[in-house]
TrEMBL record:
Organism of derivation: Capnocytophaga canis
All copies of domain Multidrug resistance protein MdtA-like C-terminal permuted SH3, residue ranges: 46-85
Identification of the protein by name: Efflux transporter, RND family, MFP subunit
Length: 105
């Protein structure tokens, strides 16, 4: 006999959350060129935000997650447009300053 269960350890309401695939791990120097040399190679969670039609990389602090979404504690605001897409496209191919176009779902 087998069973499948969901164990809910925490719930939050009215938070900023994004698809997990929108989160990228980048070197601090990629996020902020002004990063001190001793911190340049440290890794940081980040998201791409659309600003004036271009991709802007922002460091974020994440919180709880489920199977599809992850909470953003700091680094973006509710009105920011987060760039999402296939994980490889967002994490490997997209670069700061790339032009982006909003496509309806």
């Amino acid at each position: 006999m087998t069973a499948t269960v969901d164990i809910i350890t925490m719930k939050k309401k009215d938070v900023v959350a994004v698809p997990i695939s929108a989160i990228v791990i980048k070197k601090m120097s990629e996020i902020d060129p002004e990063t001190p040399e001793e911190d340049a190679d440290k890794r940081q969670e980040a998201v791409f935000v659309m600003k004036d039609g271009k991709a802007e990389l922002r460091a974020v602090q994440t919180g709880i997650q489920d199977n599809t979404n992850i909470e953003i504690i700091s680094g973006v605001e509710k009105e920011d447009e987060i760039i999402t897409g296939p994980y490889t496209l967002v994490s490997k191919n997209l670069k700061k300053g790339d032009k982006v176009v909003v496509k309806p779902k």
